[in-house]
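BUG: 3D viewer hangs when loading the predicted structure for this chain

Environment: internal workstation, default settings.
Expected: structure renders.
Actual: progress bar stalls at 90%.

Input used:
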Amino acid sequence: MARRCEICEKGRQVGHKVSHSNIKTTKVWLPNVQKVRVVLNGKPARLTVCTRCIRSNKIEKRPEITAA
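Structure tokens produced before the viewer hung:
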């Protein structure tokens, strides 16, 4: 699974971890992505979406089916 949001295209960020002696090593920050069941064009689908998009309602979650 690619760690990329399918809504906003958020992916990994790369930077440096800097030690006290100023030695720089590569550090990677990964986005918090979740597999979510959504309604896409009127049909149910499963997308990989970041939590920011889930929280800001950029997707329409599929209603859960409960047994009565």
